[in-house]
Amino acid sequence: MEQWEINKPLGQCFGSGRKIEYGEEYFAALVETGQGLQRQDYSREFWDSNKPSVYCYWKSKLPSPDQKKHIFIDDEMLMAFFERLSQETEQEKINFRFVLALILMRKRRLKYDSSRTDGDNEIWHLRVIGEDRFVDVANPHLDEKQIGQLSSQISLILQVNI
Question: Can you give the pTM of this predicted structure?
Answer without folding.
Answer: 0.57
